[in-house]
Amino acid sequence: MNKITFFSRFESDILNGKKTITIRDKSESYFKPTQILDVFTNETDRLFAKIQVISVTPISFDQLSEQHAQQENMTLEQLKGVIKEIYPTENQFFVIEFKLINEPI
Ligand SMILES: CC(=O)Nc1ccn([C@@H]2O[C@H](CO)[C@@H](O)[C@H]2O)c(=O)n1
What we know:
5-stranded mixed beta sheet; hydrolase; 3 helices; 105 residues; N(4)-acetylcytidine amidohydrolase; EC 3.5.1.135; AC4CH
């Protein structure tokens, strides 16, 4: 499926290029490099961007670093808090790196 959703509070960071990764669990680890995805808000299922997948890399919670936080436009504390909120019991994740596709939608 060429679709991914984000919580709408991250929409502006994605559109202005400040957020260039997302960290997902196994259920969303099937994306492939070069794949182009339609990006929708989680809350209202509104299309707001297209992104191209650069890489999908396994990572454990403990391996999350300041670099990942920077790519999320957050502090590491904030990032870990957000991930614990979304995935309270998960320890294994995938870093999905992406770039914004600049075309009108
Ligand atoms: C169903 C659905 O929409 N799920 C998710 C899951 C994650 N994320 C964001 O990815 C980063 C790392 O998890 C953080 O910035 C999260 O907030 C999101 O926006 N939406």
